[in-house]
Amino acid sequence: MNAENQVIPEDPTPKLYCYNHPQRETMLRCNRCNRPICSECAVLTPTGYRCRECIRGQQKTFDTARAFDYPLAVVVAGVISFLGSYLAGFLWFFILMAAPIVGVIIAEAVRWVVHRRRSRLLSQVTTVAVVVGSLPLLVVALLPLFMGNPLSSLITLLLRGAYTALVTTSFYYRLTGIQLGR
Ligand SMILES: [Zn+2]
Ligand SMILES: [Zn+2]
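That is the input. Now the predicted structure with zinc ion docked in place:
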């Protein structure tokens, strides 16, 4: 009675072959374009397997920065960071609280001058610019260290170091956090 059922093994899932390697049978599909991919072509992402083509396409949409965005963003980030560190010399305690806000301001200014174009390299380069912009006055603060007033310049140095760290981290998270969230 069951014989008939057994003789006709209807295969519900037709065999899949990798679209890059037509001779390779596979059970995976790219979860974006839905094409079959073999284990060699599959890239495991947080949302599942994807083919390399889709991964590349994805990176391209994240990578919209143009060449002239880099010098522009670097100058803006460096100058505001420097101005912030200059003000920090007058208003230490206020600035230490304000440093994270300065970081956010720099991030918004950078996004504005590059018309919200973005790339991973742009984030990295501008983060370096923020650090570099805060350094000249930190180096100046170092000088009295060798000129006979070590304690006060040590305090200045610590505060300037804290300013650099706070501005840089808040800048970086603001810039990249928005990238990831969008
Ligand atoms: Zn795909
Ligand atoms: Zn393949």
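The pocket of zinc ion (ligand 1) is lined by residues 30, 32-33, 35, 50-51, 53-54 (CB under 6 Å).
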